[in-house]
Amino acid sequence: MTDQSWTVYLSGEIHTDWRREIADGCAARGLPVVFTAPVTDHGASDDCGVEILGAEENKFWHDRKGAGVNALRTRTLIGKADIVVVRFGEKYKQWNAAFEAGYASALGKRLIIQHGPDHAHALKEVDEAAEAVAETPEQVVRLLTYAITGRL
Amino acid sequence: MTDQSWTVYLSGEIHTDWRREIADGCAARGLPVVFTAPVTDHGASDDCGVEILGAEENKFWHDRKGAGVNALRTRTLIGKADIVVVRFGEKYKQWNAAFEAGYASALGKRLIIQHGPDHAHALKEVDEAAEAVAETPEQVVRLLTYAITGRL
Amino acid sequence: MTDQSWTVYLSGEIHTDWRREIADGCAARGLPVVFTAPVTDHGASDDCGVEILGAEENKFWHDRKGAGVNALRTRTLIGKADIVVVRFGEKYKQWNAAFEAGYASALGKRLIIQHGPDHAHALKEVDEAAEAVAETPEQVVRLLTYAITGRL
Amino acid sequence: MTDQSWTVYLSGEIHTDWRREIADGCAARGLPVVFTAPVTDHGASDDCGVEILGAEENKFWHDRKGAGVNALRTRTLIGKADIVVVRFGEKYKQWNAAFEAGYASALGKRLIIQHGPDHAHALKEVDEAAEAVAETPEQVVRLLTYAITGRL
Amino acid sequence: MTDQSWTVYLSGEIHTDWRREIADGCAARGLPVVFTAPVTDHGASDDCGVEILGAEENKFWHDRKGAGVNALRTRTLIGKADIVVVRFGEKYKQWNAAFEAGYASALGKRLIIQHGPDHAHALKEVDEAAEAVAETPEQVVRLLTYAITGRL
Amino acid sequence: MTDQSWTVYLSGEIHTDWRREIADGCAARGLPVVFTAPVTDHGASDDCGVEILGAEENKFWHDRKGAGVNALRTRTLIGKADIVVVRFGEKYKQWNAAFEAGYASALGKRLIIQHGPDHAHALKEVDEAAEAVAETPEQVVRLLTYAITGRL
Amino acid sequence: MTDQSWTVYLSGEIHTDWRREIADGCAARGLPVVFTAPVTDHGASDDCGVEILGAEENKFWHDRKGAGVNALRTRTLIGKADIVVVRFGEKYKQWNAAFEAGYASALGKRLIIQHGPDHAHALKEVDEAAEAVAETPEQVVRLLTYAITGRL
Amino acid sequence: MTDQSWTVYLSGEIHTDWRREIADGCAARGLPVVFTAPVTDHGASDDCGVEILGAEENKFWHDRKGAGVNALRTRTLIGKADIVVVRFGEKYKQWNAAFEAGYASALGKRLIIQHGPDHAHALKEVDEAAEAVAETPEQVVRLLTYAITGRL
After folding, report:
1. Residues of G in contact with C56 (CB under 8 A)
2. N or C: which end of chain A has fewer CB within 10 A?
3. For residue D32, is pLDDT > 80?
4. NCBIfam families this protein is in (chains A, B, C, D, E, F, G, H) (predicted)?
5. Could you tell me which residues are beta bridge partners of residue B9?
6. Predicted TM-score of the model (pTM)
7. C-alpha–C-alpha distance, residues B102 and A106, integer Å
8. Helix, strand, coil percentages for chain H (3-state, nearest 5)
9. How far is Cα B54 from Cα C117, in angstroms, rounded to an integer?
10. H2 pLDDT above the threshold of 90
């Protein structure tokens, strides 16, 4: 029983270091995982469209251009993922995180949702679509360890 | 060129009368549309799981049971829809609305997103996945009129 | 918001009257449901292959012929269903019920599993794949009522 | 005609050494096969949910949490498999094995079912969905040898 | 348990009256079946391309044009069928019948193959892909009766 | 052999009366066809976006808004079609016609391409993807007659 | 522009050396192709079922067992192929070749059909579904060379 | 966060050196991209069919043969691509480019359309289906850089 390589897309909150925590935790355990993610540089993510394709006067189209450019990356990487982890942080609307959870769910991806207990009621439909709901990045590391190696 | 019957799922905000506005507007124009929607009675939507399947002490599982029961309805109706309209209101997290937008998008449904201008930046990725972004229910009526009959 | 017609496939146990209970309960509430099911006449289900296509000396192929003929019906009807209800009774192996639950799940059908509390541990993976787990046919009637009409 | 690498998921019974027998038999013949499997440590499989994500008072939700965590692994690995082998042992309900057989069948995977002759009648619909029905692990090794190398 | 309407595509041999036999047999039993078929007028089927779209000097392209025009009909009707029945007669190559069997199989349609015992060995792979193998049109009528009504 | 109802989407050139010719020809023959089409009012098609959703200073986004609104209609109707007919007229770039041909082809729709002989070389890849290539609307009527009724 | 590795499944006639010709021709040109094929040892192909899984008195089930075991290989390899080449030889019914052509076509595989001119009329529907129709293995080598490297 | 290897298909105009510009630009930045493309030798692309499979007197079938042979390459490579870039040049009908854009869109591929401002109105529906619309090959390089590495 060899452990195959897995691809895990880390969606959601971009203001804390949770992706690094998960990647480091999995590396420390020697797991064969490739992690992917949306662009987590907030400024680049907002301005990539106009930076590359030219300025827009209207903020709505400034945003649209950027969203399209980001989607080149995110839709491709979600499509290639085995597991999609979506973290909801304490702040902001985070509608894009919920959108990616729905998108991944309809593609038949395995879902892990990670958030603090305060958000549990507001996220109940999202949680229901997931195989596992974690409260901390460390739990995500343990979930991936178990899923990939079969060992607790 | 006969106008075929269309099925339109109205997702999102449940605290105002926007679904009725759209349905009435389309009825007044004689459009051949069947509208479907999630359960919009907030209390029923929260408690359907435990009402039907038995009480839970733990609020997390109370919510989970309800979310599953609601999904019996919503996943079926989204799957049958030609167009999914998702409205984001002024208040609340509304993560379920964003989840359903992502779910519908990955199923290849046509999407109309409706929200006020204040939410435009936070919803930019969701908007980008949509064929049209409207600000008012009346605009949604006009979009459906045009899509179904070809007349402005 | 019109209630559309739904198709519900009733899979599993064939030695009690549970399908009739559900159909009667839904009819009493005026639900627009078409119910479908595998053949529930045990003898016919066992012998349909050899009855129609000719006798077999070897019991294995006697069974195989019948299983193929039954699959003409069951695979078609599961494919057309919106919701698949699978009931596990008290007795027998009922592997076919579990097979149909897995089959429906991979097709992306909504699942309701119905069984008594004694089977909960043995059915935990099957239950996890379902939107709802009921203990009685009457609960299934209430689940369908809510899913179809949105009313508790 | 090069022999490509194949991925074979070994589903079902976890109380005997059959997976090792098959893996050893294929290794002895030098077959290019990657074997995958659900977690076969019964205790870990039962308790993984609460071990990682926190204890549950209610046994039903204890089981549900574990089933979700196991599904992170099993749904991913079945989705990646070329062939799914499902073994039914002498004991227990083994509904999960039948569920995985149905799940794999609807995904269009090739199926080998392996069980003793006593279970033939109860498994007739499951067997009918399979390309091959074997009685012993050694036969499975021979089936894989032939499928992969074309040599008896 | 209402009997839904079924669609059955009758593929294969066009020189005997077998389609009429099956349609009459099902009508006599009052089955809710819509039968569809390729064009069974041999001349029309050969010449439809050049009749409608203009003559060809080269026989190969004469045939190609006709095959394309016939495919407008056959691919559409196979795509809409619940069950595909393929009959192999005594004479001719009938490669188109085998092609349509393979095409329907990969689309996940239920298959009934009908042929005399002389062809059994040559058709073994085709038969293996089918849920049922019949020798006579009357058996096909009985198979459809059972699949649709559940009664022998 | 009943003739089922067919849905035919008429894509492409909007400056001549070819859709009406085809619809009239099929009506005269009593064919059970529902015809659908993109919006063929050039002005409405160009301005629907800004008319309904508000003006844009930038022509590019004026066009984008309109293209999205038109796509609500066209993607839905192509998705529901059995056959897609694409006509290339004498003038203009008509890239949208070619785009819809490619879109329909990848969805597995049956394709009829209609154009004059002057465009044959430039359209060779589009023609190759089609079941039939016609030169006149009348030929399209005859193709539909044959496909639907089996009669020349 | 790097040339990616391609997988080509060689279906059909098993009594001449055509697969070797194609493989040698492609090797001589240094093409990055992996060739796969059904089992071409006629005896093994006929008897693999009973050899591995036990004898059958009834020839029909002898054949069925073998067909299932062969399908473990063929369905997997067709599913992994980029291009499926199907050769029809001079003799025998070769229904399995036509079945595999239809199966590959419905899976959306690219098809090359190879046969002598005598079979052109009988194979017209099969040819119509193919991207290319060749008369000789050498032409197949040239087609693969062009498809993979872009050079004539 | 490792950067995975991406596959990018470069569709469209074949009379300028834009593919090389993009490939060189990405190589200079060290991006892990495999580029694929249709055959860009105009003569080979026109004549490949008759060169390999034999001459045709009728120009229409000369073209058809070539289009089929080219499709062996293009359909395979588009199917394997993560991103499809389609460039519309200044001249010619370029219907094949628009067809490939539609084909890629319906397959769910990410799309970048590249053209000069003069074509913006005529390409508005094609642009609407794309994640990004660029004016120069250099912008395409920057889009790929950002999509693959997340860095502007």
Report:
1. 58
2. N
3. yes
4. YtoQ_fam
5. B36, B84
6. 0.97
7. 8
8. 50, 15, 35
9. 13
10. no
pLDDT tens per residue across all 152 residues of chain A: 556 799 999 999 999 999 999 999 999 999 999 999 999 999 999 999 999 999 999 999 999 999 999 999 999 999 999 999 999 999 889 999 999 999 999 999 999 999 999 999 999 999 999 999 999 999 999 999 999 999 99
Q: What pLDDT is stored for residue H3 in this prediction?
A: 64
In chain B, which residue's Cα lies nearest the Cα of D60?
Answer: B61
Of H84, H86, H83, the residue nearest H148 (C-alpha):
H83
Task: Output the DSSP codes for E16-41.
Answer: SSHHHHHHHHHHHTT--EEEE-----
Contact G95, G63 (CB under 8 A): no
D13-18's contacts with Cβ under 8 Å and 24+ in sequence apart are D13/D87, D13/D88, D13/D89, D13/D92, D13/D94, D13/D97, D14/D38, D14/D40, D14/D42, D14/D45, D15/D42, D15/D89, D15/D91, D16/D89, D18/D87, D18/D114, D18/D137
Among residues C5, C11, C140, C1, which one has the least CA distance to residue C78? Answer: C11
| Cβ contact, residue pair D123, C64, below 8 Å | no
What is the rounded distance in angstroms from the CA atom of residue C99 to the CA atom of residue D94? 11
Region for residue F3 given its phi and psi (left: phi exceeds 0; alpha: psi -120 to 50; beta: otherwise): beta
CA A59/CA B127 separation, integer angstroms: 13
| Beta-sheet strand order (sheet of G6-12) | G33-36, G6-12, G83-87, G110-114, G132-134
- In this complex, do A150 and D40 lie within 8 Å of one another by their Cβ atoms? yes
**In Å, how far from its chain's centre is CA C91?**
16
Residue given tokens 């229409």 in the structure block: H60
Tokens coding H77: 């490579």
The answer, yes or no, to whether H and G have at least 3 beta-carbon pairs within 8 Å is yes
The 8-class DSSP code of residue D108 comes to: T
- Helical packing angle, B59-80 and C137-149, nearest 10°: 60
Closest CA of chain G from H121, distance in Å? 31
CB-CB contact of G15 with G89 (8 Å): yes
CB contact at 8 A, D97 and D115 = no
DSSP class of G4: P
CA dihedral F9, F15, F17, F22 (to 10 degrees): -20
Q: From the CA of D54, how many Å to the nearest CA of chain A? A: 9
Query: Could you report the per-residue pLDDT of D63-92, keeping only the tens digit for each?
Result: 999 999 999 999 999 999 999 999 999 988
Q: Residue H67 has what DSSP assignment?
A: H
For residue G81, the SS3 value is: coil
Question: What is the rounded distance in angstroms from the CA atom of residue C13 to the CA atom of residue C22?
Answer: 13
Backbone dihedral region for residue A117 (phi beyond 0: left; psi -120 to 50: alpha; all else: beta):
alpha
What are the φ and ψ backbone dihedral angles of G128, each rounded to 5 degrees? -65, -30
For E27, residues 6+ apart whose C-beta sits below 8 A from its C-beta are none
Which domains are delineated in chain G?
A: 6-40+79-149 (3.40.50.450)
pLDDT by residue (tens digit) across G40-78?
A: 999 999 999 999 999 999 999 999 999 999 999 999 999
pLDDT score at A78: 98
CA distance A105 to chain H (A): 16
Which residue is closest to H85 within chain A, CA to CA?
Answer: A72
Closest CA to D125 of C64, B72, G118, C81: C64
Burial class from Cβ neighbours inside 10 Å (0-12, 13-18, 19+) for residue H72 reads buried
Q: Nearest-CA residue of chain C relative to D71?
A: C125
Burial D19-31 (b: 16+ CB within 10 A, else e): beebbebbeeeeb
R_g over Cα of chain G: 16
CA distances from E13 to E16, E101, F1 (A): 7, 12, 16
- For A41, B121, H132, H133, the CA distances from A46, given in Å and listed in that order, are 9, 9, 15, 17
